[in-house]
Amino acid sequence: MKVFFFSARSYDRESFEAVARQENLTFTYHLASLSSQNASISEGYEAICIFVNDTCDAEVLRILHRSGVKGILLRCAGFNNVDLKVAKELGMFVARVPGISTGIMQIDLAYSPEAVAEHTIALIMTLNRQIHRAFNRVRENNFSLAGLLGFTLHGKTVGIFGTGKIGICTATILKGFGCNLLGYDVVKNPEFETSLGKYTSTLKELLSQSDIVTLHAPLLDSTRYIINSETLATMKPGAMLVNTSRGALVHHQAIIEALKKRHLGGLAIDVYEAEEGLFFQNHEGEILDDEVIGRLMTFHNVLITGHQGFFTRESLYEIANVTLENLTCLEEGKKCPNALC
Ligand code: NAD
Predict the structure, then answer these.
(1) Residue 62: which domain range?
(2) Does the pTM exceed 0.85?
């Protein structure tokens, strides 16, 4: 089987080469992200392997289909960038790497949501205790504490929007900190109710009672811009918002307004709506055209990382492994547990 990788970085190559066991596999790695301009480059390959910011809309899928590509292997959990309806019409195989918590289900070699949960906690702790600013200060021999005041996490209320795998892992860690947990989800998770926290019946209720709100729902029509000027207004004054899920859950212009009004107390994001073409690359020495992220970066109470929640050695290895299992299903025409169509 020949697989063409888009948006492939050195660490992708390393993890995939390390787990590639079958000798009949040919992997070609391409740095650029998938778009209608370059989709036909994969002609002659049975499958392509893509990541979060590769565009796999109807136009791209048709080009891939005409080029003989039979399968789309997502080396991530989210699949909002693939038009599944069209993929299905074209009879194409699409599979992803779903999060399977090794703590909850004893399944090895699966993508770990703990990695994303731990990064979420790192963002909360860093922004609250201003570790990023303290680090820079101390390196300049400045040991002043002025402006570094944080709050004690113990006893604070954290609202978890989306209590799936990553939401549960995040809640479990926060429970250890002594936080009170509120959850909001369209599907209630018994594990959350039994041992972690309680569900609110509306999102407004969760937002109005939480000192920290962390987003862990996928990007769907129903969740796009779920955090907007209206919902932001219902948040507690001074509360912190964290998003490690998908950028477009949040309306970033509305966030800027809420920060300017001093209503939103802090923002920590690992994802950004317009991250395609920006994240995963070094733009040092360039002028950024994106006015919104540019403005966000001017706030002392905004912390941004470039979609690195998944980025642990264990996670990369697991992603490569599950992707290869998905490829085997395509090759052998077997039923695939991770297939989306
Ligand atoms: P999951 O499917 O286990 O959980 C998602 C939860 O969101 C489910 O419980 C679902 O019922 C809930 N949900 C769906 N629609 C909702 C709505 N309208 N309102 C409230 N809740 C709703 O997914 P997961 O593995 O926990 O991953 C969550 C998201 O994290 C992914 O969709 C992906 O976008 C993101 N992610 C980010 C990274 C990263 O590196 N930053 C890595 C992996 C995943």
Answers:
(1) 2-98+313-332
(2) yes
